[in-house]
Design a protein that fits this description.
- The chain has 354 residues and is mainly alpha-helical.
- 76% of the residues lie in helices and 1% in strands.
- A hairpin with a 2-residue loop joins β1 and β2.
- The protein is elongated.
C-alpha cells in the first residue's frame, strides 16, 4: 500500500518528466521556427528590401535627422581627425594610375574639354575688363617690375660699354678717362647715376606700357589669344601633362601635391573659419530640404527605385549569407527562447507547471 511519501515521490517524478517533456518540446519548436524563419527570410529578402525602401523613401528627412545631427556628423567625423594614412596612400596610388595610364597617350586634350567650353570660358574672361586691367597693373605697373627691368637694362648697358671700351683701344681709354673725370667733378658714381636715370625713366616707361597693354588687349583680343592658345595644344595627348610632373621616387610630384593638399586640409579643418562656413552651408541645405522625403533626396543623387532594385539584387548573396550566419541564428534562437520562457506563454501552450 502506497504511503503519502510514496505518492509525493511519484508526483515529483511526474513533474520532472513533464518538465523535461515540455523543455524538449519547446526546444524542438524553437529549432523548427529558426529554420522556418531563415528559409522565409531567404525567399523574402528582396521584396522585404524593396518594401523597406518604399517605406523609408516616403518618410520626411526631418523626422529622423536634424540640422544639429548633420553638424555633429561633419564636425565629429570629417573635421575632427586627419585623413588616415591608408586613405592617403590609396589617393596617391589612384592618382598615379590615372595620370600615367597608357590610354593617356592616345586621348587628345580636346576630348576632355570641348571647344564650346573654351569659347564660353574665354568670352567670360575677356569680358571682365576691370579684373583684366588689375592683372595688367599687377604685372607691369608695379614697382617690383620697374626695379627688375631697371636692373636688367643697367647690366645690359654696363656689359655693352665694358665690352666696347675694351675693344676700342685708345678711344676706349679716353672714354674711361672721361668717365673718371665726370665722377670726380660731380662727386657721383656713374653707375649710380645711370641706375637712377634708368629707374626714373623706366617707371614712366612701365606706365606707358601698362596703358598700351590695357588699350591693346581689348575683350576681343584677349578672347582671340586664348582661343589661339587652345588651338595650339588641343590636339596634343593628355600624356603631355606628364612633362610638368616628376615621377622620380626622391622627387615625386604626386606625393608633393597630395602632401600639400593634406597640409592645407589639416590646417583648415581645425580653423573657426571653415567650421563657420560648414555650419552655414549645412544650415542652408537643411532648411531647403528638411521637408523632402528620403526618396526625393536620393533622387537628387540619381538613386531611384530602379537603382534600388539593382542594388537589392546585387546584395542578395550578402543577405543570404547573413541570414545563414551563426550569429544571426543564435540571435533568433535566444529571442525565441526568451519568448517561450514567459510564464503566460508556457501556460497558454499547456507547458505550465501546477
Amino acid at each position: 500500500m502506497q504511503t503519502s511519501k510514496d505518492i509525493q515521490n511519484l508526483d515529483n517524478q511526474s513533474d520532472t518528466v513533464g518538465t523535461k517533456t515540455a523543455t524538449l518540446t519547446i526546444d524542438s519548436l524553437i529549432e523548427a521556427q529558426v529554420a522556418f524563419m531563415q528559409q522565409w527570410l531567404r525567399t523574402q529578402a528582396e521584396p522585404l528590401a524593396m518594401g523597406a525602401w518604399h517605406w523609408l523613401g516616403a518618410q520626411p528627412m526631418r523626422n529622423y535627422v536634424s540640422c544639429a545631427d548633420l553638424q555633429h556628423l561633419l564636425n565629429d567625423w570629417l573635421l575632427s581627425q586627419p585623413m588616415s594614412e591608408v586613405m592617403r596612400a590609396d589617393i596617391r596610388d589612384i592618382l598615379h594610375t590615372t595620370i600615367y595610364h597608357p590610354v593617356n597617350d592616345n586621348v587628345p586634350l580636346s576630348e576632355l574639354v570641348d571647344d564650346t567650353q573654351i569659347d564660353t570660358l574665354t568670352t567670360y574672361i575677356g569680358s571682365h575688363e576691370q579684373q583684366r586691367n588689375i592683372l595688367i597693373h599687377s604685372l607691369i605697373g608695379n614697382d617690383t617690375f620697374a626695379d627688375l627691368l631697371t636692373q636688367t637694362l643697367y647690366h645690359a648697358i654696363n656689359d655693352f660699354m665694358e665690352t666696347t671700351l675694351d675693344k676700342a683701344g685708345g678711344v676706349g681709354k679716353l672714354m674711361k678717362l672721361g668717365r673718371s673725370s665726370f665722377e670726380k667733378a660731380t662727386n657721383r658714381n656713374l653707375d649710380e647715376k645711370l641706375q637712377a636715370y634708368l629707374h626714373r625713366n623706366i617707371k614712366d616707361l612701365t606706365r606707358r606700357a601698362e596703358t598700351n597693354a590695357q588699350e591693346h588687349l581689348s575683350n576681343e583680343e584677349v578672347t582671340r589669344l586664348l582661343i589661339t592658345g587652345w588651338a595650339r595644344i588641343k590636339d596634343q595627348p593628355v600624356s603631355q601633362l606628364q612633362k610638368y610632373l616628376s615621377d622620380k621616387p626622391e622627387n615625386n610630384s604626386i606625393d608633393h601635391i597630395e602632401a600639400s593638399v593634406q597640409q592645407s586640409f589639416n590646417r583648415l579643418r581645425i580653423s573657426p573659419y571653415l567650421h563657420s562656413l560648414v555650419a552655414a552651408a549645412v544650415e542652408t541645405w537643411y532648411n531647403t530640404h528638411q521637408s523632402d522625403s528620403i526618396a526625393t533626396l536620393a533622387l537628387g543623387l540619381n538613386v531611384d527605385t530602379k537603382a534600388m532594385e539593382g542594388l537589392s539584387t546585387s546584395l542578395l548573396p550578402l543577405a543570404h549569407d547573413a541570414i545563414d550566419s551563426e550569429w544571426f541564428t543564435d540571435h533568433i534562437r535566444e529571442m525565441l527562447q526568451a519568448f517561450y520562457a514567459q510564464a503566460d506563454i508556457k501556460n497558454s501552450l499547456g507547458f505550465g507547471i501546477s
